[in-house]
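Record minuted for completeness.

…
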Amino acid sequence: MALRLFIYSARIMSIGTALEFIGLYRPLKKTLRYLTDTQYLRNELEVRADLRCTRKAVGNWAAQGAEYANPNRLFAVVSFTNLPMHAKFHCLAAKAMQLRGYTPLIFTHSSSRFAHKYFRMFGIDRLVIWDEYVKQVVSPDEVQVLEEQLLPSTQDVPTIMKVKFHGVEIGKHALSMTARRRVQGRLDLSDPQTWALFQKEFYRAVESVLAAGRFFDQNPVEKMLVRDLGYTPNGAIYETALLLGTDCVVYEQGQRRHTWILKRYTPETKGKHFFSLSDATWEKVKQQPWTSEDDARLEREFAGRYKPDSEDDTRRLMYGKRIKPPEEVRAQLGLDPSKKTAVIFSHVAWDAAFFYGTCLFDDFESWLYETVKFVASECPQLNWIVKLHPLNAFKLQREIVREESEIRLLRTLMPLPEHIKIMRADTDINTQSLFPLVDFVLTVNGTVGMEFPCYGIPAIVAGSGRYEGQGFTMDARTRDEYFSILKNLHDIPRLDAEARRLARKHFYTLVTRRQFSLEDVAPMELKRFHEAQSNVHDNIHFVARSLEEFKISPSASLLGEWLAHSREPDLLVPLS
């Protein structure tokens, strides 16, 4: 009977559609991938092995604790991931909240089957399978009508960035997803392929806002945890909840091993970068004294941060790189020793492209392109280094892309004049080598904008949402002002003592108190660049052997109490 149905279906449909019709498409596709994609098979086997290890480590205690939870108090986790580390972090946060009276609810996807196994291991059974839920509550015809109404006739990034639906920034979300899928930071929406992909993402953004609104109408959520808040459907769920008054917390992996960063948002602060200090926190920090002992501790932080082959750097940015003296760097790059040197620090322009703050230009790559173009013709008084972000080496390996998008972008300006040099992502020069060499740094809102001022080096900032206006950066309000600063940059002096002190207070607080360690309950394992294809290249492991041991662990207690009872915007590690 099934064979007859298949033959009949195949006559009127494509083979793929016919297989989908009788429920064989996905199993056959999966089997074929097992047979042809060795990396996929290895990832599957590694995750299955991690599931076994995790089940053995936590035993039965992880599923305990349901009696603490009130079914009418929901703690939602937006969890569109199949990566073990993040799925397990979601389990950890959900368990901490369950012990404080909340019922965990997970937004997930039908394809995240491994994540579902971790959730059920921890006794979490309220899963909202988003792709299935959307089909139940949203009509394609309804979405199509709205899409046509909302989509601007002008196909340019600034116009689309402003598009909102029910208060949710769907234009940003769709652009972010398009940049991520194209691995391009500067989107050419006149390109038919790019526009077609954008339209697909825009449709999904509209659909997700509708579905999120209908879900929250029936299921009031008190608190929410989310990551990747600018993608779809994460952004629609998060922003809809935020506008409804849900207590929303964004989390990301910290820059130091074993650590995480958590920030609480309101509709007014949602553009603030997660790795920043809130206005309230910064006001308190400014009032605190700064001593020579603090200076020494900060120097140790910098040394550990840039230590080659560091075991503690989550991002592993300096892996395999050497700290070199200034004269060696000058010779390697061909810098004129008679000139001051400025570094343009590029961003990974296609990842989280439109999540936080604002940029003076349409996007990170437009900023980079226009800056390089300007200094090439107008600023020969300085050496200019265009430093491509070292995280490119890791991310491009996972995307199986060989060349940074910035190189493709800048190729139209090549050959660059002699006063401009490029440092590729895979350079062997450790970034710490630049501190005694550099006189100015340029960024939109990168970490370098708060690091280099600690040493009196002015940072020219072309964006907002992180540390602008806090007393140690040069903030341009317009493009004309920005280019005027660059034109006269060679005459700008180093930062004074007060600006350096503010920068040091700010950065030290950020790296020591905003990065929250879970080492006592869930230590982190990091693998190296050449292992970056693995789904367990980063991972956490549970060391608690009972629910009570988990409950009283200092880090799980701090996390649970802050999530459940605090209204502070920043999760801060207590002063020692």
About this structure: Residues 95 and 128 are 18 Å apart (CA to CA).
